[in-house]
Design a protein that fits this description.
Length: 151
Amino acid sequence: MAAIGRETAETASLPGTVSDAQRAEIMAREKKLMTEWRAELKGLVAQDPKSIWADDAQYVVAVLNAENPQEEIKELEELLARYPDFKIEDWTKKYVIIVPSNISPAMATVDLCVLYKKMGELDKLRSTCEKGMKNFPEDASLFKKILDSVR
């Protein structure tokens, strides 16, 4: 993660304009770092799945796959199957900027429903929204709104 931060800082501090070739090189390095970070986080989950950090790592892996919705779906499904009542640690919320401070099992389930809708997986969308309404009654209106948007 520190390497990604350094890379981003270096990119932002480049004097003048950045050429397309430089931009492509930087993007390739950042993509490589993200791939390595995902692998490290997956390793952490595999090594100690009962750690207080395992659910945090699994959630971050899902978010790091935002450019690939099928992978993001797979990782969110894994998170919710393994850690249905997950709790992201305050440290992670504070220092990992891609983790929203209000993330919860209900919000991750909403995210999953939105992805199912985007990918046209309507059967999974319906069943997940129905499960969300049952498991998170305080957020039932969110799931209903998503479900109604495809009827």
